[in-house]
TrEMBL record, chains A, B:
GO terms for biological process: glutathione metabolic process; L-phenylalanine catabolic process. The lineage of its organism: Bacteria, Pseudomonadati, Pseudomonadota, Betaproteobacteria, Burkholderiales. One of its GO terms (molecular function) is maleylacetoacetate isomerase activity. Residues 1-82 form the GST N-terminal domain. Its EC number is 5.2.1.2. It is an enzyme of class 5 (isomerase). SUPFAM superfamilies: GST C-terminal domain-like, Thioredoxin-like. NCBIfam families: maiA (TIGR01262). It comes from Massilia eburnea. Keywords: Isomerase. This is Maleylacetoacetate isomerase. Belongs to the GST superfamily. Zeta family. CDD domains: GST_C_Zeta, GST_N_Zeta.
Length: 214, 214
């Protein structure tokens, strides 16, 4: 398998975690999101992923895109080290936590959005960061409230083994920590992130441990 | 089953389409996103969904959230009228199309984001609409490019029966049409939306046919 990735991309980071949790070998193909106006927007990469976004996974010559779709594919094709619970309600809960991050939170603060706020929208650095902190807070509060209310979490988001929800939580917490956001109001999130950080798979997938790390 | 819904919410609209495609009966519980500062943000609804977002589905007393997680749950518990292909690659393709809308496009233009742009961010109506059109365009281009390149579409996004991808495409096209966005540059998207519009399930789920339609 070949993974088009960027060391700091949250979406690529999610897929790297899933690959390492399942013990699947892959070749990393770095796509630099900042160099030359963004290699992901260049025609060569658009042939891989016409949306011009990372990650993309190539398996048996077939290109797959979208981090959660890729992880569900890995789960179906390589069911060992399952990243979803066995029962439908548990699976729905895990997917909902993952989507709280991947649909409601991260899309509002990824690189292309932040660049659009400062470029075409003409906002100041301060306004851009206000935006960032606002949506990070909304997302973290929603995640924490679900973890607290649903009562499914153990060492990880759902029980005591990592799931797709943890594959999403950890990159989001990494982003929060890059900007020194205090995690004290989100004790379940902080606890789970710390438990994940102890595992070799999460260490291997970390932005600081990639071939394209700067 | 009980669905907390708002007639114009794209995410609720997706779930309504899935319920109708599967022929599942449900009670609609309207949550008015604009009344009294948003009923979805009130304590009563936060007890249902702590994230303060619609939709939420209650099945056998269990509350499920996030539109795509809810639809995957319905697919697992009620497999008739399947909304995903049988093979892993097909499933990944359908999920990726769904997420192109649900992760990359719609989160940037939903009600809470548009309100935040005009309120706390202090942008003008014109700037807000520039933002809306920009991300709608990005999303539609990505969707069209995938439909064109991947070659999986037939009458619908993937083959000749509706899938989760169509549950997402139709509400996004509804949004585009509300703002008179020309669909001519997106012929596959326009063709599929028209084919969906002919089906009773899509008609029943339409914002114009809900108990809370205004």
């Amino acid at each position: 398998m070949k993974l088009y990735t960027y060391f700091r991309s949250s979406a690529a980071y999610r897929v790297r975690i899933a690959l390492h949790l399942k013990g699947l070998a892959y070749d990393a193909v770095p796509v630099h999101l900042l160099r030359d106006g963004g290699e992901q927007r260049a025609p060569a990469y658009r042939e891989v992923n016409p949306a011009g976004l990372v990650p993309a996974l190539v398996d048996n010559g077939i290109v797959l895109t979208q981090s959660l779709a890729i992880i569900e594919y890995l789960e179906e094709v390589h069911p060992m080290a399952p990243l979803l619970p066995q029962d439908a309600v548990g699976r729905a809960r895990v997917r909902a936590l993952a989507q709280t991050i991947a649909c409601d939170t991260h899309p509002l603060m990824n690189l292309r959005v932040l660049k659009h706020l400062k470029g075409p929208m003409g906002l100041s650095e301060e306004q851009k960061m206000d935006w960032y902190f606002h949506w990070m807070g909304e997302g973290m509060r929603a995640l924490e409230a679900h973890l607290e209310r649903d009562g499914d979490s153990g060492r990880f988001c759902y029980g005591d083994t990592p799931t797709i929800a943890d594959c999403c939580l950890v990159p989001q917490v990494y982003n929060a920590q890059r900007f020194d956001i205090d995690l004290a109001p989100y004790p379940n999130v902080a606890r789970i992130a710390a438990n994940c950080a102890d595992l070799p798979a999460f260490k291997a997938a970390h932005p600081s441990a990639q071939p394209d790390t700067e």
